[in-house]
Amino acid sequence: MTTAATPRRRAAAPAASGTACRIESARPGLYCCGVSHPARVMRYPDGFFSAAQLATLAAHPELRVERLGGEGR
Asked: What's the superkingdom here (predicted)?
């Protein structure tokens, strides 16, 4: 007996929520919220971090977080 393969569904993309941001680390390789942050400015698009993760990142003393409106420019 053969069974038909069921197609896998792709996860829905996160909704844009104004959570695009720029993050700069005071030291290279600092690991926080699942990301190793280099000692340079990195831009992350909407939905990359949750609101709770952004709050954690912003509270970290060695990270400078700037929230952007819409997709990071």
From this structure: Bacteria
pLDDT tens column, 39-67: 999 999 999 999 999 999 999 999 999 99
In this structure, what DSSP letter does residue 59 have?
H
Could you tell me the CA-to-CA distances from 19 to 2, 5, 46, 70 in Å, in that order?
A: 47, 37, 5, 7
Tokens of residue 34, six digits: 């699942």
Beta strands in the chain (DSSP E): 21-25, 30-32, 35-37, 42-44, 63-67
Phi, psi torsion values for 40, nearest 5 degrees: -150, 165
- C-alpha 6/C-alpha 26 separation (Å) is 48
